[in-house]
Amino acid sequence: MDSTPSPSSSSAFELVSRALGRYIPQGGATAADPRGDRATRQRVPDPPAAGQQEQILGAVNLDTDLIITRCNLDAPVFAGLDADAGKPFVELLPPGDVPTVTRRLRQVVESGEAHVARIQRLRRCDGSELVVSMSILPAASPEEGLTVSVIAMARRLHLYAAETAIGTSLDIGETAQSLAESLLAWGDVAAVDLDFAVWTGEGVTGNAQGRIHLRRAALVPDRVWPEGYLTPGDDLPGDASRLLAQAVLRDDAPQTIVIPDRQAVERVFGSPRVVRALVPSGRSAGVACIPLVLDGAPPVVLGVAEVWRRADCPFRDSELFDLQELVARTAHHVDLARQHQREHTQVLALQRRLLPRSGGDTIEIASVYQPATPDSAGVGGDWVNSFPLPDGRTALVVGDVVGHGLGAAATMGQLSMEARALLSAGLAPDQVLEHLDETVTLLDDADSGLAAGYSALGSTCCIALYDPVGHHVTLSSAGHLPPILVSPDGHAGALSIRPHPGLGAEFALREPFDVYTIGVPAGSVLALYTDGLVEDPALSIDEGIDRLADVVSTVHPWDALQQTARHVVSALAPAPQRDDVTLLLARMIGYRKGDTATWRLPARSDAPAHARERVAALLRQWGTRDDTRDKTLLLVSELVTNAVRFATGPVTVRLIRSGHGLLCEVGDTGNGRPRLRRGDLLDNGGRGLSIVHRLTTRWGVRWTDTGKVVWAEVAR
User: Fold this and answer.
1) DSSP 8-state code for residue 89
2) Distance of CA 185 to CAs 149, 174, 308, Å?
3) Which site among 5, 412, 436, 651 is 20 to 30 Å from 103 CA-CA?
């Protein structure tokens, strides 16, 4: 086996070997020298003397079949590793680790992307094991194969590397897995069991006795385990949870316990079912149980870390100190992940509550909300909503609040609820955006104290109102990306909307909110979305919008809309996903022509009589019940009388037949708001609205460019 680097090559193996040549003392027997004393190579070295420099770096070269071609394991710490040329690399691995490591090696061969700093065990000839940090590097072109760089994990280096690795994620599962992988340096199997409250992100207290309910959060190595053995996601049996809780909380003080062998394990747990669930093999094995503790008064136990090893290799005191130090150093990372999980769950629940539930008779709604990946900055402020308005129209709203986490979620919820209330009160989309703009400005006002440490300036929102009678959409946008409209013939494109700076812009940059009215024939599909769906580092935002239009244009009139929405998101959502993805699809159905009727009457004293006559004829044509017809005629008479009495200009009467009732609308040019009030018995005014209130299931007012419309619904 030749460990001398070729001067004409710069492979990863040779670069590592050159580095080794500068640090490894000359004259010793090496694993790369086939003439070296084999007894020396198999000898497990004693720990270096105090102050002596410990050599910890080595390299092994593999071909594409994962066979060793060269190696440079000259440092004394690697003595005993049988790494001769021509042997499979997997012979250096414990049997249980072979599938996982082989998969990693194959991935690097196929993808050419390095796999860095995996904590791994290597087998020595005498059966002992060496823990290393292993990196897998692809060979430099035109060579083929791999270079495996190994660093023997000295105690302090391992503790530092472990703590660094554990603190890189805020996902509770990944944090527990990183801790278990680090603990494997001291045993054959490592597991992390967390209190169920920690796993779900709930709050934890120091009063843990009788409350701890443990769930397995992580387990290494990755292998096929015996039937009944606990794997990640499984709950520990109640007896095991209570016993572990009592053991690590003896004398009300969390402490490490060691059970030396299988006989002692069986004696402690007392139940064959519990033993099968906790002991990783049929061989005699001992375990060290180290509590994950947050300092406090009293201390809070987050869970238990367990390290299993052969009973003939008992834990030394120094090893237990190391285990306790590592777990103590990383317990706060577990708690940070718990807090992040709790915040993530709260925000996610709020966002899902805001998602549209269903459409109605005149519109079909489908929506998809896909939160960002767990390793992102947290759940974002995307929100989407749709709801029927009392006058028969449907509101479609989508927004994107700046930032992530609870601050963004609070603002998102406030803006969503405010938009719904204002739209239900009859305000136009541009008027609603004006109010939302003021709200964002107020929330960012430091003097108000409503948004300490968080700014929502630059948030965006788009509001669209669908009129199923006129078959048109009225929309207004505050800095949001333009909706996509798909016509019944399959043509799709972004609506032309004038850019806007968004909500809460500086006073000098503020612009009026434009209002657009677009015709949408029956069968049209409108797509509202947030930027997470179309943003791609490799494409401009316009190209991303065009891609969305192309995908949405394939929606067939009888395709299931929810399934289509999922298809669109899966086709376009970037990977990895750095921002929330939100999509709302609305298929416009509208009312049939025979279900609506409109009359325009002069504002004269005979207008109520003419209105009653025309409405009565239509209701007979529709076959309406007598009691419903009588209520509707009285309702129309009162509304038209009020319009003639208090307004000027022509009066418009519209009647709509829907699945759940009759909707009557009377429009005029007045700007006064009708109000229901409690009158005296002798008071001649104000009785009209009292009659309207008693005849209808609901009524209200919406404002138009020329006046107002009073609407009321009568149950059929």
Assistant:
1) G
2) 17, 18, 11
3) 5
Alpha carbon distance 460, 482 (integer Å) = 11
Q: Is residue 190 within 8 Å of 305, Cβ to Cβ?
A: yes
Dist CA 206 CA 196 (whole Å): 15
Cβ–Cβ under 8 Å, residues 131 and 185: yes
How far is CA 375 from its chain centroid? 9
Q: Name the DSSP letter for residue 381.
A: E
Q: For the chain, how big is the Rg over CA atoms in Å? A: 36
**Of 710, 714, 698, residue with least CA distance to 663:** 714
Would you say 55 and 30 are in contact if contact means Cβ atoms under 8 Å apart? no
Partners of residue 286 on adjacent β-strands = 309
Amino acid at 624: T
Residue 67 has pLDDT above 80, yes or no: yes
Does position 450 have pLDDT exceeding 60, yes or no?
A: no
Query: Which two tokens mark 415?
Result: 């803006």
DSSP-assigned states of every residue in 155-205: HHHHHHHHHHHHTT---HHHHHHHHHHHHGGGSSEEEEEEEHHHHTT----
Q: What is the pLDDT of residue 6?
A: 42
Of 107, 167, 119, residue with least CA distance to 330: 167
What is the rounded distance in angstroms from the CA atom of residue 536 to the CA atom of residue 548? Answer: 12
Strands (DSSP E) contained in 297-441 are: 300-310, 363-370, 380-388, 394-404
79 vs 65, higher pLDDT: 65
Buried-exposed string 671-701: b where 16+ CB fall within 10 A, e elsewhere: eeebeeeeeeeeeeeeebbeebeebbeebbb
Integer Cα distance of 153 and 56 in angstroms: 7
pLDDT over threshold 50, residue 53: no
Tokens of 166: 């554990």
Q: What are phi and psi of 161, to 5 degrees?
A: -65, -40
Q: Which residue has the tokens 């008779």?
A: 361
Strands 115-123 and 129-138: antiparallel
**55 conformational bin, left if phi > 0, alpha if psi -120 to 50, beta if neither:** beta
pLDDT at 408: 74
Contact call for residues 121 and 97 (beta carbons, < 8 A)? yes
Taking Cα atoms as reference points, which of 365, 610, 586 lies closest to residue 483?
586
Structure tokens belonging to residue 117: 């700093």
pLDDT tier for residue 167 given thresholds of 50, 70 and 90: low
Rounded distance between C-alpha atoms, residue 331 and residue 291, angstroms:
9
Sign (positive/negative) of CA torsion 433, 438, 440, 441?
A: positive
Residue 315 three-state SS:
coil
Distance CA 178, CA 690 (A): 69
Tokens 């429009």 sit at which residue?
A: 667
